[in-house]
Design brief:
4 helices
């Protein structure tokens, strides 16, 4: 009885962590979603290069090239974060110019 439990239990226990790991497609989806959201947060300061990078990432993912798509989505995320930083900086500068020190 114990041998049967070990025979079934060990492979089952070892397969659980493998099932919990995300694959390249899920990794891409998560990064792409964050990049899109951050890009929207940039508002009127959205950079066209970010949009282009998001389109290229989506196209690569649609073609099954998930590792390349994830890399492009990461680039788009960094660009989107920079455009949000630009928006925030411009808001501060505008207040200083409009209101004064």
């Amino acid at each position: 009885m114990n041998r049967l439990l070990l025979t079934i239990g060990i492979p089952l226990a070892l397969s659980v962590p493998m099932a919990a790991q995300a694959g390249p497609e899920e990794d891409f989806d998560e990064v792409y979603s964050r990049a899109q959201s951050t890009h929207r947060d940039a508002g009127t300061f959205q950079w066209t290069v970010t949009s282009d990078r998001l389109k290229a990432a989506k196209s690569a993912a649609d073609n099954g090239e998930h590792e390349q798509a994830k890399a492009m989505a990461n680039e788009a995320l960094k660009l989107a974060e920079e455009s949000v930083a630009q928006r925030k900086k411009q808001q501060e500068v505008w207040r200083s110019a409009a209101i004064g020190n």
